Amino acid sequence: MKNLFFVVLATLIQVVFFCPDIDCPHCSKKIYENIAFEKGVKDLSVEVDSRQVTVKFNAAKTDTLALGKALAKIGYPAQVVEYREVRK
Amino acid sequence: MRRLVFTLAVFFSAAASLSAQQIDTVGIYGERQDTLNATVVTASGSSNFLSKGKEIRTEVITAAGLCKMACCNLAESFENSASVTVGYSDAVTGARQIRLLGQSGIYTQMLDENRPVMRGLSAPWGLTFVPSQWLESIQIAKGVTSVINGVESMTGQINMEHRKPTDEKPFYLQASVMDDSKCDVNAASSLQLDDEGKWSTVILAHGDANFAGMDHNADGFLDDPMSRNIALSNRWLYYDPSGLQVRFGVRGILDGRSGGQLDRDKWRADIRNKDINAYVKVGLPIGDDQARSVALVADYTFHNLESDYGMHDASKSFIPSSGREYDASQNSAFVNLLYQDNTDDRHHYTIGLSNTFDAYRENLSGLTAVNSVSRMNILGAFGEYTFRKDDVFTAIVGLRADWYNGEGLKMSPRLTLKYMPIEQIVLRANAGRGLRYSCPIIDNIGILSTTKHLGGVLDEHPLEDSWTFGANATWYLPFDKSGKTYLSLDYFYTSFAEQLIVDNSSTSISLYKLSDVEGGYSYTGNLQADFSTEPVRGLTFTLTGRFTDARQKRFDAMSDIKPMTSLYKAVFNVQYATNLNKWIFDFTASLNGPQKVWDFMSEMYSTGYTPIYPLLYAQVTKRFKGFDVYVGGENLTGFTQKNPIIMASDPGDSRFDASCVWGPLMGAKFYAGIRLTIWKTK
Q: For a pLDDT cut of 70, what percent of chain B falls above it?
């Protein structure tokens, strides 16, 4: 019950990172295989052409900084280009 | 840097192969794509799909597809495919054989990143020598394919893409165990050795073993041989900023297996394989725009086989008078030199020279004696012209002129057409000639697992000659946003002008040439339909059906229906992956149609046909960061072929025959495994 209450109130954030080092489909695979399993990540897509990574996450479990660090750790330094709440 | 390496990989692939054979790069659980430059929006992934971009009708089994079954080896990777049927060559050795377009797998050319492999001695067990976990994807092309790698692809071509040196995975480990005690371990390590990305390498290791002997049908014979197999491979990539790219590698295999009666001092099949392969591929772009290129591909394989099939005495020594001992070795070399010009967007051409050399030493003793040394050489020149009008129309015309020693000059034309009148419809057609030297004993290795009299063409290598025609229509239906819904229909027809025919009767097996049969003919027609859809994200349904009409005129046969060839097969697969692929559920059901049995088996099969049987497979995978855990089951209905060994009660009888296998030898099997991946970090 406590968890349900928590989920209902959780804030879902969508952040779009620009990763200049994305340059091939293998990059998207690597990002997907790693970032999808970061705590709090609810959805993820990677677009090679625009070099953008879009992440939806539970704000109670992670934040933009942690996700940016996770991207940098696997070789993709990232800049936030869009940040918005998609659900409260 | 990665882009440069990747671009070069594209170039090299193009230089070394026809554009129709270009690689689909599909990652584990990654979304499919039909071109190398396609944007990847990663989501739930297809595991088997028909490629939209390729000129030849090509089914792609992705890395996700390779993870679907227990998939210890390549043979098991085709369980989801209706195009390819996998069966045992016999009931004792574990040798697996595929069938494509209703013909034996020997008429399907196997490629390892566009190098012909699994030829000759390594063919009977070759499918079990390739660990699925070494592979990134498999492409199954139906019909005649490019002339660039020779014309041994008579019914199709299967290309295997291995894990790449440039993969940013310094460590990968997979281990699985089945309830029958079979264990399988694979490891891979891709290493980039310098910051410039010039040198990279991948080390691949494999080991499997089957420790326990099972005899579920209580016929006194092991259902699956006890076995030990280790394989090691090291592949390298060097690229220079000037454009030069060199790939080279080595692979070694040691395989030992022992099947036969549970009492190990009785009838046994003992087989020992050793295989070494080395290759080098060099690609060099020419000119500022690098639109022209030259490439050299060289490959060498040595294979040694020692085997005996028969009774053993108390000291476990083989008794020659009770069976057959077959020892053979093979030295093969393949060299291909190509020049490719892509300077014009519409007109591409490739020309080249090639040489394929095979030397066999075969010694068959015991009930049948054959002692032969044979050398086959194919020296050829080829050209291939591609006309491409945007994405709408492509025509590929290829011609080879090959000098076959002992057979003379043979011309092999091939034509491929692809037409996309609208974005949602793809029409394809291809036609052409195929030629290959047959290897009577090796191609029909199951004949050694009998005590029947063997006669006919055993020490010759007749040149088999076929023509294949085929067409495919694929309609991409606008039922879902992902564009993954399609309906595909294809028909292929293969007719042989010359073929080695095998005739099995109650006490003898004879091999002879089709041309020796008055009014002889041999052909197969294959009709296949495929439907795939993803109605909601993560949920994929695939339904495939195939009908085969295989006919062959043989001496004294009561019917011209080709024996031991299934008349139809249907496969249904459903896969559901939760968001971010954290759970993956997979279920496959197949219905395997009847097969006409040999005339002498009609007493055992009153209708003259084998029964229809279903096969069910299921797997559940849970994925965590860096590792997966999976459990699954195969042949869940537990269906097995009754009495797969004829005269199992008396292996000394002249009617003893373990080669008439049409169905599963093992009942339900369950397995569990893990996959561990460590990614490169900065």
A: 93
Residue B542 has, within 13 A of its CA and on its CB side, a CA count of: 24
Q: Which residue has the tokens 């750790």?
A: A73
Under the banding of pLDDT at 50, 70 and 90, the label for residue B127 is confident
Q: Which of B304, B248, B256, B276 is nearest to B128 (CA)?
A: B256
CATH number at residue A34: 3.30.70.100
In a domain, A62, yes or no: yes
pLDDT greater than 70 at residue B338: yes
Tokens of B214: 């099972």
Would residue A38 count as lying in a domain? yes
What's the CA gap between B432 and B430, in Å, rounded? Answer: 7
Separation between Cα atoms, residue B96 and residue B650, nearest integer Å: 25
Pick from B559, B93, B535, B39: which is nearest to B324 by CA?
B93
Contact A43 B681 (CB under 8 A): no
Contact A24 B168 (CB under 8 A): no
Non-local (6+) Cβ contacts of B288 within 8 A are: none
CA B525 to chain centre: 20
Min Cα–Cα distance to chain B from A44, Å: 7
State the total domains in chain A: 1
Domain boundaries, position A58: 12-87
Q: Which of A23, A27, A29 should we substitute to test contact with B (largest number of B Cβ atoms within 10 Å)? A: A29
- Cβ-defined contact of B42 to A28 (cutoff 8 Å): yes
| A45 in any annotated domain | yes
A4, part of any domain: no
B534 Cβ neighbours under 8 A, 6+ residues apart:
B44, B46, B480, B482, B484, B485, B540, B541
CA distance B67 to B77: 9
In B461-538 the beta strands, taken as DSSP E runs, fall at 463-476, 486-498, 500-504, 508-513, 522-536
